[in-house]
UniProtKB/TrEMBL annotation, chains A, B:
Cofactor(s) needed by this chain: FAD
Record keyword Metal-binding present: no
UniProt xrefs under Pfam families: FAD-oxidase_C, FAD_binding_4
Protein name: D-lactate dehydrogenase (cytochrome)
Leading EC class: oxidoreductase
Enzyme Commission number: 1.1.2.4
Family, per entry: Belongs to the FAD-binding oxidoreductase/transferase type 4 family.
FAD-binding PCMH-type domain mapped to chain residues: 43-220
């Protein structure tokens, strides 16, 4: 036992963190900057220190100390968020769990895996291949499972496999005071006690820090057929998807790319589809079922004047076609060299999607801004990538106003301010508007679990007045 | 405006309830008895009064008054519970929402319906037929949607469609003090704020009273094929199901009936299947897919020495075959005339199912009790109907001990004390054991939402010491 060195240049909380966690605590300016923000345009300030935890015990120690010092803690996974959920504030500690990246258990017959929060989706899926299983939910971009769970993230596969909400069975969570709890069960279902798992999923680190996640797994499908369809109008595209979802068709993915996006792709990658509203659709299953499902979709598609541009069962070719969807953002940004995106994320009941998108396009046109639109149309979720030319403060202001009007428009038709990106900093006001009647209940729960308000302060909930 | 009549024979809280809600409040002894318990063997005492609410406003008024008087409130739907969750205690008020049975909105294209809590599953499904839609989750027995949501109920379809957890989008909830909140969203997904919906789903009326439920709907399948298969052993039955679930097969239902159940059915209904471990399995979808799915299942089944006893796509014939599953309980009870069942409800990771059931059968044999077993095998959930001969206190004591050992056995392999029946009175101790580390968190949340502890006191959580 050696007494910890007295380091007078650091604050008392950092001193105590170093005493407990040694070299896992860093105050190196470059590291502080790199861990201070996510991929969004939201503002941030340098934290006091970064704790690079390698175990639940580390997280527990860090929180116990920060709790004693009433010091704000900002949990962080892969930093791939889009609403500033892991952006740090001055005087805070960044609690980085990205080094907690062990796959603890793959229960193949029970279709679950228990992994540490820092494991990346791609790492998990690599490890699952030998079991012919996959983790099928989550965003297209690679991200840590802890961050995905904390954000209640999803992506193109949600229409079939659900979001993180439907794919997390159990969690290990460290509470604000450092105590460690286990929520949920590794069984496929349970009616035992309060569903704490789903309280922490989507709470963005404001109620506790997720350190382990037990995820539902799905078989890797034997076969898939994907197709690219051009439609004469947005209304027809959505009507076709509604018709498919109301039939016995099991659509695995169905993505909308508006004509502006398709045009941007053509300029950026040489993508050659007709410049029109476009649906990319996929069916998975056994080889014969995939064909019959796709054939039935094609029959429906004809009723809505859709024209097939491409179709394939070849995984390589399908990957190339899907790449266009993944290139949508870089292609959009290339329309205005040097621009940054303000990405919107409303989700509405699918029947309201055409009116919501068309009114937004009209609104957009009146602003002079450029914003290609892509949508997880089967879920009613769509994104504008509003392009912000470098140094154009007026465009930025206009973009924020456009987004504010879009949020109001979505809420007015029973929509939500965020389908999958989370609240973070960016949607605090919209969330409060959306959940006006339930806001006090959320605040009570926050106060009961984090009475000192140290966990990701200022995110999700604006405490004391909305 | 007339001043309320002073009724000196009733307690102050009942007086105030009558003043506010008039004839919706009853103290008629026969009604009190009929509303004092569910279908379980658990004890109950007569409440002070029954409030028969017909609106969320009624529920709000009743709770506001009970909150003022610190009077316990026991919410009640259809009273079909199996763990005493709606059993009343002396001095409590029964808050009966079964008359709140309006279907408020069917959003067919958006695949949801918003209904009052007292709507029965059968009523909802009758109304959905014209839309070619169904509410596909929930138990086999008819029950109110509010009660199903409060219990996080499920049944034979959970393996495909999920439980109530996966099928509730949004709720209207009245809190302990009478305030009304709306949780969730009618969108298919949302990352906006804390997931209060899933906190109330499964909380069994201890955190708030559910008055409206927004449910996910599914298309009525075009076709279905069901089959009945006999297997030489339980291990082979479970191995076959695991194999099917790990393939691209989409099993809609897969139910296990043990040989004791099949024997009981033969005696009770003349059901003619071979007396063996039996699987009833169903696939739904388009006609050709149903055939290809079933054929692939049959191929797998042969690998596990399964023999097909029956198979049909005819809805009437399928209904008759499924009836055997629904007759399992009455057939079991007929084995010992006049007996009542103690129904168990553990759920384990599916790979642990054979060892858990076999050890339980061995244990059962050592007790001399009779207990046919049925199981939602795809979920790892199984039920013993332990037969309690009339007036046999020793058998009842043995049954409780057997269930206690079963609960320990399930928890030891990572199982849960209740897959679908809820905690109620019967599983309070087992729930505390299962969620030991998270119990304080559940208690904090209960205390923050119901500080006077009036909501379904004594259910789910034993407050102040486990």
């Amino acid at each position: 036992m050696t007494a910890p060195l007295k380091n007078t240049s650091v604050s008392p909380v950092v001193h105590d963190l170093i005493a407990a966690l040694g070299s896992k605590v860093s105050t190196e300016p470059e590291l502080l900057d790199s861990r201070a923000h996510d991929r969004s345009y939201h503002s941030w300030e340098q934290p006091l220190a970064v704790v690079q935890a390698t175990s639940t015990h580390d997280v527990s120690q860090a929180l116990r100390i920060c709790h004693q010092h009433h010091t704000p803690v900002v949990p962080r996974g892969s930093g791939t968020g889009l609403e500033g959920g892991s952006n740090t504030t001055a005087g805070s500690i960044c609690l980085d769990v990205s080094a907690m990246n062990r796959i603890l258990n793959v229960a193949a017959d029970d279709l679950y895996a228990n992994v540490e929060a820092g494991v990346m989706k791609s790492e998990l899926n690599d490890a699952l291949k030998e079991h012919h299983l996959q983790f099928a939910a989550g965003p297209g971009v690679d991200a840590s499972v802890g961050g995905m769970a904390a954000t209640s993230a999803s992506g193109t596969t949600a229409v079939h496999y659900g979001t993180l909400k439907e794919n997390v069975l159990a969690l290990t969570v460290v509470l604000a005071d450092g105590s460690i709890i286990r929520t949920g069960s590794t069984t496929k279902k349970s009616s035992s006690g309060y569903d704490l798992t789903h309280l922490f999923v989507g709470s963005e680190g404001t109620l506790g820090v997720i350190t382990e996640v037990t995820l539902t797994l799905h078989p890797i499908p034997e076969a898939a057929r994907m197709g690219v369809w051009s439609l004469p109008s947005l209304q027809q595209a959505v009507d076709l998807v509604v018709k498919a979802l109301r039939s016995s068709l099991r659509v695995t993915r169905v993505e909308l790319l508006d004509r502006v996006t398709v045009d941007a792709l053509a300029r950026y990658t040489g993508y050659s589809a007709p410049v029109s509203e476009t649906l990319m659709v996929e069916f998975v299953g056994g080889p014969s079922e995939v064909e019959s499902q796709y054939a039935r979709f094609a029959e429906l598609a004809e009723q809505y004047d859709a024209a097939e541009h491409a179709s394939t069962t070849d995984p390589g070719e399908a990957g190339r076609l899907w790449q266009a969807r993944h290139d949508a953002l870089p292609a959009a940004l290339a329309l205005i060299p040097g621009s940054a995106p303000l990405t919107t994320d409303v989700c509405v009941p699918i029947s309201k999607l055409p009116e919501c998108i068309l009114a937004t396009k009209e609104d957009l046109n009146s602003t002079g801004l450029v914003a290609p639109i892509v949508g997880h149309v089967g879920d009613g979720n769509f994104h504008l990538a509003i392009l912000l030319p470098p140094g154009d403060a007026e465009a930025e202001s206009k973009a924020h106003q456009l987004n504010a009007r879009l949020l109001d428009r979505a809420l007015a038709v029973g929509g939500t301010c965020t389908g999958e990106h989370g609240v973070g900093i960016g949607k605090v006001g919209a969330m409060a508007k959306e959940h006006e009647s339930a806001l006090e209940t959320m605040r009570s729960i926050k106060a009961s679990l984090d009475p000192r308000g140290i966990l990701n302060a200022g995110k999700v909930l604006a405490l004391g007045g909305s």
